[in-house]
Amino acid sequence: MSTMVAETFDCRVAFAEELLALARADERIVAVCNDSVGSSNLVAFAKEFPDRLINVGIAEQDMVGVGAGLALSGYVPFVCGAAPFLTGRALEQIKADVAYSQSPVVLCGMSPGMAYGELGPTHHSIEDLSWLRAIAGLGIVVPADPAETRAAVRWAASAATPVFLRIGRFKVPAVTDSFSFGTATLLRDGSDVTVVAAGTMVSRALAAADEALADGVSVRVLNMSTIAPLDEDVIRRAMRETRGIVTAEEATTTGGLGAAVAAVVVAERAPVPMRMLGVHREFAPTGSTAFLLEHFGLAASDIRAAVVDLARADA
Amino acid sequence: MLVADPRAAAAWRRFRQDLADSGPERRREMLRRRANQSRTTDLQMIGRAGLGHVGGDLSVLDILTTLFFAVLRVDPERPDWADRDRFVLSKGHTAGALYATLAAAGFFSAQELDTFAGPHSALNGHPNRVKVPGVETNTGPLGHGLPVSVGMAVAGRLAASNRHVYVVLGDGELQEGSNWEAAMTAGHRRLANLTAVVDRNRLQQGARTEETSALDPLDAKWRSFGWDVIEVDGHDHLALLAAFTAPRGERPTCVIANTIKGRGVSFMEDRVEWHHKVPTPEQITDAMAELAR
């Protein structure tokens, strides 16, 4: 068990730096935002490319429609807004103008999950994964750290397909060194229980795996940064090679990562037991992000407890 | 994706050349006849499919005909030509009118119209850009076309292209708030390469617009959002042509086209029940006789 406190990062910084670097090399790249120049970390972009930063004001439906119009005209728009408003307010635009129209917009949901802690459930974006996963043809990517954020931004710029990137604000340690759209990354191999995590939960899953060694449980950790389309093969492999699956996400469990994994698991002839960690159709009480993650059972110790519970229940 | 009909496209090119070479009265008559042919086609499609939005189809067809047969710089045989003008039908429920117009211009074969709304047809009840050439974005839910068109106009400006973006909006549709977000953006950014055409037939699905959630004074609304406004008779082809091609200033233009829902078929005109009622075979025969005049 590590006693060192790892350095942590706001992924919006990596996002903004990478976007700016890409924009310097490719004039098709533009940014569209809803007055969120500051909160989307687009200040430097606006300064260097004032004509290519289209700030429509506080108007998310317009923002997504404008992004679609740009994409359909050959540009590569990164449409940036706080995740709750981008997804909730403009859901029909995401469905009709982006996904159904197959317009290659990069939707960037900034400060997702419960990153806005004390601002409360109006500003939390825990429903986004459930909402968006229901939409055909939309890729959903939840990077776990700055390196993966950079790689996902680079991939999205040339993907030519509708995609949603969840760009974290709550600080996380560096845990990844690669990103491949549609493929989970094996971060820790183990033989008893698999933890499938995304975003802020990945570093916590790794910590839980460390801690579970003390319980004699060998934990496999998968970074499932692409929520849709899901890497189903890696789930089936985990079912064969370990005895249970824990999913962990900073989102409601009604339709996000856990539900996606469960749909794979129950379709198999020999399903394995699962535990789904996340928010269970509840609005958060007042509190900081760190407090809320603990409140909803999303600390490393909670993941460890779920892992041990599964390992023992099955033994 | 459907493919162009070269013979129909050639006929469309001849029509446009002939129109350009003609005087005003002949132009008016050419466009009137062309629009009424599309009205007939549309009624037959609706009769065959057993569904459609006949009232709005008939009100918008003079606008669509004038745009496609006299104004838009497009090429039915090169629908992805980068510098084409963009046309967006925001009132996507009048897809039948658009399909009849696109087929007449040669974007695809008129035979396809027989499949309208049938199983696996490219011609869905609302237009799909992935399946139908000439369709720029998928519409259907109201209040989507103008924001997308604003994005297209911003793109045209970024690309330093002189292409123009035309978007046709229903009047009832203007009750959707997203239109006013986009109107504000276009006015603020002075998108002079954007023209919004309002099919002002004063009827929505269940009642008159002014009895439901009043739009008037509509011209003042657009002006206050930073747009130039031209108000015309939406069934006067020469007035539409003049409005669509008038020199643009530094602001986006809204053409309020005053129309009659059900235009051209006496028993449908200005009657709310013909929003999406399907005419009987006898009614279609009667309507076609009126339109043949």
From TrEMBL, chain A:
Q: Which Pfam families match?
A: Transket_pyr (PF02779), Transketolase_C (PF02780)
Q: Write one Gene Ontology MF term.
A: magnesium ion binding
What highest taxon heads this organism's lineage? Bacteria
Q: Respond yes or no to whether keyword Nucleus is given for this record.
A: no
**What Gene3D superfamilies does the record point to?**
3.40.50.920, 3.40.50.970
Cofactor requirement: thiamine diphosphate
Question: What keywords were assigned to this record?
Answer: Thiamine pyrophosphate
Matching InterPro entries, A to Z? PDH/Transketolase, THDP-binding, Transketo_C/PFOR_II, Transketolase-like_Pyr-bd, Transketolase_C
Q: Transketolase-like pyrimidine-binding domain: which residues?
A: 9-174
Family in the record: Belongs to the transketolase family.
Q: What is this protein called?
A: Transketolase
From TrEMBL, chain B:
InterPro entries to which the protein is assigned, alphabetical: THDP-binding, Transketolase_N
Instruction: List keywords of the entry alphabetically.
Output: Thiamine pyrophosphate
Does the record's keyword annotation contain Magnesium?
no
Chain ranges passing through the membrane:
none
Q: What terms describe the molecular function in GO for this protein?
A: magnesium ion binding
Q: Which residues form the Transketolase N-terminal domain?
A: 34-275
Name its co-factor(s). thiamine diphosphate
SUPFAM superfamilies noted in UniProt: Thiamin diphosphate-binding fold (THDP-binding)
Q: Give the family from UniProt.
A: Belongs to the transketolase family.
Q: Which PANTHER family match?
A: TRANSKETOLASE N-TERMINAL SECTION-RELATED
State the name under which the record lists this protein: Transketolase
